[in-house]
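Re-run with default settings, no changes from the original entry. Doing this only to confirm the output is reproducible before filing.
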Amino acid sequence: SNPLHRQVHQDMEQPLCHYFIASSHNTYLSGDQLLSQSRAEMYARVLQAGCRCVEVDCWDGPDGEPVVHHGYTLTSKILFRDVAETINKYAFIKNEFPVILSIENHCSIQQQKKIAQYLKEIFGDKLDLSSVSTGDPRQLPSPQDLKGKILVKV
């Protein structure tokens, strides 16, 4: 075998859109999509397995607290705050490349404000609040530029 093939070169300086990103669908579910338990620990598991984009389905919960679950099913509900705290704890243990929160938003304005508050409180400086205003994907930051950052897509 060619010894040159043993070395892996990872160029992480290209715009983010140049990469395939390991993503998780219905990340919070521990089993099937209709009846299973929602668990914050599932985020810890997938982030440590190398996933860099996780899904968070947000719905209005009791007492003004947004919850995460698979809507219109019998899956259990977990608090958005617990999900955010778990992501914060495990996001960068295995690698420093950015984590994308893919938020599916079904919340009222009041609970959306609560989600925004938790994102700022829990992630602090890790939360990337820079706005991408250009329509040119070549202008996107690179994974290298975004190391240690949490990005939000809604």
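The beta strands are 53-59, 67-68, 78-79, 99-105, 150-153. The domain at 21-127+139-150 is CATH 3.20.20.190 (TIM Barrel).
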